[in-house]
Design brief:
Blueprint lengths: L3 E4 L2 E4 H11 L9 H12 L6 H13 L4 H15 L3
Antiparallel strand pairs: 1-2
Helix pairs in contact: 1-2, 2-4
């Protein structure tokens, strides 16, 4: 797997896209749950920096994947708090 994934001419973090795809395929209702959101958040934090590519990827995930209301609210809040320290 390439580190980057290009979608519609934009470069995204391939690992985060693959993670979201794996979390939403198979069982469940295809939405990102709280547990899924926690996994995605940990993957974003893994490099201890918040790059422009990661910012763009998070925006893409929020816009193009279905999230439960609780997961979306929690994820947005945690990303904001964490990104403010970077």
């Amino acid at each position: 797997m390439s580190y980057y994934k290009t979608i519609d001419g934009n470069k995204y973090d391939g690992e985060l896209i693959e993670l979201a795809d794996s979390l939403t395929s198979g069982g469940g209702d295809g939405r990102i749950s709280m547990a899924d959101a926690e996994k995605i958040f940990e993957a974003v934090k893994d490099g201890n920096s918040y790059t422009d590519i990661e910012k763009d990827t998070v925006a893409y995930l929020r816009d193009n994947y279905k999230w439960t209301d609780a997961a979306d609210e929690w994820f947005r809040s945690e990303i904001r708090k964490w990104a403010a320290t970077k």
